[in-house]
Amino acid sequence: MWVHCRFETLSLNGAVAEGEVRVEATAGRVPARGMRVAERVTLRLRSARVDLTDLVCSGPVSVHALAQPITGVPDRDGPAKVAVISLRGVDAESLTLTDVDLSECTFAGMHRADQIHLDGDCVFATGPGRRRLLAEEHHWRAERRTARRGGPGRRRPAPEGVEVVGPRRIEAVYRQLRKALEEGKNEPGAADFYYGEMQMRRAAARSADRLLLWLYWAVSGYGLRARRALVWVLVVAVLSIAGMTAFGFPQNAKAQKATGTIVTPAGPQAVTLTIRQDDPAKNLPERLEKAVEVTVNAVIFRSPDTELTTAGRYLNIVVRILGPILLGLAILAIRNQVKR
User: Fold this and answer.
1) Residue ranges per domain, the chain?
2) What is the pLDDT of residues 66-87, one digit of tens each?
3) Beta strands in the chain (DSSP E)
């Protein structure tokens, strides 16, 4: 069956599609709650808000946002985007969404979300740093902020009748959508969902685990923020150079004595040798130069060739541990951003 039309509301609630159906429509609303699909159903839409709650599909279902007006069908006033507002209760194994707006879509309760197919430019809600996130995270954060401060702030509260779910369920949705994008070879696109998954895991974790996850977030954005890790490498290097310059090198040269016996024509003779090291660097430029050298060696996990004080040795140990870790996180973050 093929349908070509313009409606204010194209209601498919409870509809049963026994055969193949293709709909091209310009419609303000397309509610399809509880729709049952036996064979292929294709919805090619403009200017529509689609509700697929509890869709039951035995055959493939696709929702495609049309970029151009439908021939012979006048456009509606307002944006031409197609927004899917609910996928709750949908078995996503046979569902394909193309170029749709998912910024208001609620996913919690969707089955097999890791098998959904997202093609083209599917738009999600955004958060700090332009990170793509789910509407459920907006709802949860708005509710929490309202409880603490009396208002949702910049977060989008849940519409009336929409359940606000907790971080554990949001984490599971993020994980499944991340898997769906990874299996579609969209690794960079999956990074935001991994970030959201870790944010929700941290929100739901107990104190000790939360602290560990917070540190992971703070130093590298869960291995996804290369600039953050590189900034920490720079901070550690600057602190190390300052510490080495201030107290990392001895002020005076050390003298060591070696005793022994040598055989002479007159017989064995006791010998004492005094070994005096070179004078340590005392002026600021020399100390600063050595501090930079020691710090760079520490970051690449090399032992210093310069004599250090006790405090300097401990500082060097700390830099030798933190430097490679932070560099590794920065490399991991860069890799996650560019891999395909």
Assistant:
1) 2-225, 227-338
2) 988 888 777 777 778 999 999 9
3) 2-9, 16-17, 21-31, 36-37, 41-46, 49-51, 56-57, 61-65, 83-86, 95-98, 117-119, 125-126, 132-133, 255-264, 267-276
